[in-house]
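Reagents: none. Just compute today. SMP-30/gluconolactonase/LRE family protein.
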Amino acid sequence: MMEEVPTSVLSAEHCHLGEGPTYDVTTDTAWWFDIREGRLFEAHLGSGTIRIHALGRMASALGRIDAEHQLVVAEDGCYIRSVADGAMTLFCPLEADNPATRSNDCRVHQSGTFWIGTMGRKAERGLGAIYALHRGKISTLFPGISIPNSICFSPDGAIGYFTDTARAVLYAVPLNPATGLPRGEPEVLLRHTGIGGLDGSVCDADGQIWNACWGAGRVDVYSPQGERLRSLRVPARQASCPAFVGADLSHLLVTSAWQDMDAEARAADPQAGCTFLLQASARGRAEPDVKLA
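Predicted 3D structure written out:
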């Protein structure tokens, strides 16, 4: 059954492709992207103030380095961004020589290693990959990915999850908790069936996996064994990615998109692209900082 939990609109700005939400508990600030329009959103939850930053390039995720700096994953590489003035300095290129690809789903492991997904700009089959940025160096983890999503990690850092949305399979892979790097091969945790597809995910403090189901207007909650436990309604059909926010990390921020929707579809889905807050009764976890050295 679909749960109806108290839900509010955090931002009514319609994102072409909302993605990559994260939350800085030290400043009570949520961040997310409109990939297609090259925009970064900054929302101070306590005051309700929202700022939109033009990046001049497509970007999909960020990780906090320290109080003054963030690492932004963009279409051509990873940039160090100054929080104070928004200045961006290239840290390392990533598929910069391949104009057919861009970044997509990413998340920081508890060790400080950043898992980064790339994909074809037209979702070409097998054109993307999942990389690890570990102590400042990038290595390829899983090549031949069409649409990398659902990158997240168990609370102890010993299991990594990811999907290729095109394959409708969520994988679990054993990790070295100290490095966030695989120490075994991925295994199938669950196969998605029915309406929609597996999009972005995040793990809570109990190890449950909260997955935005693209095309179905919901967030599904899975056990570490792959059993679906809950389904929470999102008031936009193309829910894209969740993040835990708030002082007690009990609320769920969910991004959405109007990508590939014609005028008729958008009229039928008037909140497509908005960003929502769900009172999910969750036990979230704070996002770790990226370690570059």
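The CA atoms of residues 18 and 167 lie 22 Å apart.
Action item: order primers for follow-up constructs.
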